[in-house]
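Deliverable D2.4 — example input (structure tokens):
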């Protein structure tokens, strides 16, 4: 195996991030209090068109905090798609509830609204939608179903910063939105996350739980058991710089997406992520789907081929209902998630980061094209 020369993802950092970090260090406000925290939360809430944003230490914690704030408990059920990163379901388990998996819509790769109602029981408390690989879920239909049955909706937007659904930003479309700022995300601080919401009382509850359960109006008085889920001022200093630069970051990534589509078009057996007419996806990781019969090689064959040429890729997520922590319950429910399993088996993420050159993209695409059946 050759040394990896082109990685699948890399952060877009500049002197602006460095300057902010130095400023935060010199201010001595390096922990969970400081001006950059307040600034970032205000700016991100504004960008998401929500009244409130709470920064947290990572995207998984964002999901966990959202569920805690919504009072999800042992014995409850939460409907989630199976085609997602495991954090979505892990967070449900953290609060003692059970994730109930349903299939995705092949037209969006997001949770299929047509299948939700059949999975609702008296124990169901809510729905977590995942805006998978940057594409928003069909929120109007999902919110309607939730309203009819008295359920809340959490948006897992970890991969979908700045995406829009019918012109509205993700993170503002459910009861709570959750985000990740991990190193491979469009904006990043290494590790970090946030929740976005409009409900003042829910925001107060979430903020209290985030900060060890301390009463916001009485220092060192703790009326509830809380958690230390806070993000640091240094991390938010990086995020503030990222927010100033996000339009430039998006533009570069959109150009990368456009170049991939140009070079990979009309290759038998290679198709792209579908885009609904109402969606404005965000350019997170460029996705292709490999039809083994038409292309002549499997998805895994192509991964190995590119790896041998020094190019790192990522297979799509393994369906959660097939993983050991959830498999037994899924078998008992007789889950049948045909589209999830098919997309998972054939999907591949290609290198996507701001400084990826056109020459590198051309090389990647040339290898893919030359390896097809023609």
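Example output (designed residues):
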């Amino acid at each position: 195996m050759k040394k990896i020369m082109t990685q699948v993802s890399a952060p877009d950092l500049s002197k602006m991030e460095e300057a902010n970090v130095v400023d935060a260090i010199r201010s001595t406000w390096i922990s969970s209090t400081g001006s950059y925290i307040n600034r970032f939360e205000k700016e991100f809430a504004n960008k998401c068109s929500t009244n409130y944003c709470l920064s947290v230490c990572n995207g998984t914690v964002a999901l966990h905090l959202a569920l805690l704030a919504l009072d999800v408990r042992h014995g409850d059920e939460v409907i989630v798609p199976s085609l997602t990163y495991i954090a979505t379901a892990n967070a449900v388990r953290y609060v003692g509830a059970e994730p109930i998996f349903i299939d995705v819509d092949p037209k969006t790769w997001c949770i299929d609204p047509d299948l939700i109602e059949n999975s609702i029981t008296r124990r169901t408390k809510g729905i977590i939608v995942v805006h998978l690989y940057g594409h928003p879920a069909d929120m109007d239909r999902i919110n309607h179903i939730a309203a009819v049955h008295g359920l809340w909706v959490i948006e897992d937007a970890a991969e979908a910063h700045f995406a829009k659904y019918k012109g509205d930003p993700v993170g503002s479309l459910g009861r709570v939105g959750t985000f990740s700022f991990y190193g491979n995300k469009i904006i990043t601080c290494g590790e970090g996350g946030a929740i976005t919401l409009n409900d003042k009382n829910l925001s107060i509850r979430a903020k209290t739980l985030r900060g060890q359960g301390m009463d916001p109006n009485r220092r060192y008085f703790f009326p509830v058991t809380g958690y230390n889920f806070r993000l640091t001022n240094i991390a938010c200093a990086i995020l503030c710089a990222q927010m100033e630069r996000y339009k430039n970051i998006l533009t570069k990534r959109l150009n990368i997406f456009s170049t991939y589509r140009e070079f990979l078009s009309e290759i038998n057996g290679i198709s792209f992520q579908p885009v609904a007419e109402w969606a404005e996806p965000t350019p997170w990781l460029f996705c292709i789907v490999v039809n083994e019969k038409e292309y002549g090689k499997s998805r895994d064959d192509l991964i190995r081929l590119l790896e041998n040429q020094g190019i790192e890729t990522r297979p799509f997520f393994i369906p959660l209902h097939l993983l050991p922590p959830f498999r037994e319950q899924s078998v008992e429910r007789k889950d049948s998630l045909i589209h999830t399993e098919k997309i998972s088996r054939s999907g591949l993420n290609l290198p996507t980061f701001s400084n990826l050159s056109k020459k590198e993209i051309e090389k990647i695409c040339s290898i893919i094209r030359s390896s097809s059946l023609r």
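The CA atoms of residues 53 and 191 lie 17 Å apart.
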